[in-house]
């Protein structure tokens, strides 16, 4: 196998593993189940995203943020997402890929958190809506 197909194969397997772990998580599983019907198609899109994020492969040209706007999840989903992702990259990617992917993922979870939950309630919880006055 060439280096490129090795690495594409590794990225795809990492994405499969991520969703295997995510589907065992009580917070993430229902969010995934409600939105994802074509699993292989979804794995392909997300693997293309990571291929582009890690290697600038040009395989992904979409915009992840708007895709997440209509999803029904709370701010606690970010920790669960990062936990599953951290494990999946550690198990399957090379150490350098894992480190780069995690850096990118932390940055994106932070942007999603700020973009999707721009308000803070009186108890400090991030919220999609402003506090009721
Ligand atoms: C709370 C955390 C997250 C949850 C619950 C979540 C859930 C989902 C779901 C359900 C979809 C499929 C949406 C659909 O096809 O209608 C999706 C798509 C996607 N997610 Fe996430 N996600 C989260 C965070 C992230 C982060 C941090 C990244 C990147 C670092 C990411 C990258 C992607 C990508 C690339 C897609 C495909 C976008 C496209 O179709 O072009 N997600 N996510």
Domain module count: 1
Helical stretch tally:
6
Provide the spatial order of strands within the biggest beta sheet. 1-2
CATH architecture: Orthogonal Bundle
Radius of gyration based on Cα positions: 16 Å
Sketch the major β-sheet: 2 strands, antiparallel
How would you describe the shape? elongated
Keywords: Heme, Iron, Metal-binding, Transport
Pfam family, one: Bac_globin
InterPro entries: Globin-like_sf (IPR009050), Globin/Proto (IPR012292), Hemoglobin_trunc (IPR001486)
GO molecular function, one term: oxygen binding
What does this structure look like?
The chain is built from six helices and two strands. The protein has 133 residues and is mostly helical. It has a single domain (3-127), classed as Orthogonal Bundle (Globin-like), CATH 1.10.490. α1 (3-22) crosses α3 (39-55) and α1 runs antiparallel to α5 (77-92). It is elongated and about 60 Å long. Protoporphyrin IX containing FE binds next to α2, α3, α4, α5 and α6. Keywords: Heme, Iron, Metal-binding, Transport. GO terms for molecular function: heme binding; metal ion binding; oxygen binding. Heme binds at residue 42.
């Amino acid at each position: 196998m060439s280096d490129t197909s090795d690495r594409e194969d590794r990225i795809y397997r990492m994405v499969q593993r991520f969703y295997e772990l995510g589907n065992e998580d009580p917070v993430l599983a229902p969010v995934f189940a409600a939105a994802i019907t074509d699993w292989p198609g979804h794995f392909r899109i997300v693997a293309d995203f990571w291929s582009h994020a890690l290697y600038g492969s040009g395989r992904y040209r979409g915009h992840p943020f708007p895709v997440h706007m209509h999803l029904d999840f709370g701010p606690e989903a970010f920790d669960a997402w990062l936990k599953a992702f951290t494990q999946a990259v550690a198990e399957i990617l090379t150490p350098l890929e894992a480190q780069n992917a995690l850096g990118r993922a932390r940055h994106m979870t932070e942007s999603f958190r700020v973009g999707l939950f721009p308000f803070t309630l009186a108890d400090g919880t991030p919220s999609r809506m402003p506090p009721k006055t």
